[in-house]
Amino acid sequence: MLLLVVVHSAGIQDREGAQKVLDGLRHFYARLCKIWADGAYNGNLAE
Questions:
Q1: Which of 37 and 28 is assigned the larger pLDDT?
Q2: Nearest 5°: CA angle at 23, between 36 and 20?
Q3: Which of 8, 31, 36, 45 lies 20 to 30 Å from 17, alpha-carbon distance?
Q4: Per-residue pLDDT tens for 8-36?
């Protein structure tokens, strides 16, 4: 199920772009509590 799309330049790393997606999801889906991702998404994004 597609929840949100964010379009950005190709120069942005996946995990930086993912933060933009998560920020947008938080606005529309406040109760969303679990998101699955691969090993590239670590650090602050995974917390």
A1: 28
A2: 85
A3: 31
A4: 888 988 878 888 888 888 888 888 888 87
Task: Write the DSSP symbol of residue 43.
Answer: G
SS3 14: helix
DSSP classification of residue 22: H
Residue ranges of domains in the chain: 14-46
Kindly calculate the radius of gyration of the chain based on its CA atoms and give it in whole angstroms.
Answer: 11
Whole-prediction pTM: 0.58
Burial 18-34 (b: 16+ CB within 10 A, else e): beeebeeeeeeeeeeee
Report d(CA 4, CA 11) in Å as an integer.
Answer: 20
